[in-house]
Amino acid sequence: MKHFTGISDPYEEPINPEIICLTDRFTVEQCVNQVLHYLQSQGLISAFNKSKIYTISQKY
């Protein structure tokens, strides 16, 4: 694939990202919640029910 990030084109770090998930400091669940809260605060998704979010142990 030509011009595909990570394959033939290098990854380019965003200059001014809207959100940063510190995956070396927080769990996957915490990072997912951070993204969901951000999306909700921007009006991109409606309120979500945390009980419907699968945890890693529930999925695997």
General description of the model:
With 60 residues, the protein is an all-alpha fold. It has helices at 28-41, 56-59. The protein is elongated, with a radius of gyration of 15 Å. The relative contact order is 0.12. The model has no long low-confidence stretch (mean pLDDT 82).
Key terms for this structure?
60 residues, mainly alpha, elongated, 2 helices
Strand content: under 5%
Which range best describes the helical content: under 10%, 10-25%, 25-40%, 40-55%, 55-70% or over 70%? 25-40%
Helices, by number, come to 2
Compute the average pLDDT. Answer: 82
User: H/E element string?
Assistant: HH
The largest β sheet comes out as: none
Shape: elongated
Radius of gyration: 15 Å
- Ends apart, CA distance between termini: 32 Å
Low-confidence stretches: none
SSE topology:
Elements: H1 28-41, H2 56-59
Question: Outline of this structure?
Answer:
This protein is an all-alpha fold and 60 residues long. It contains 2 helices and no strands.
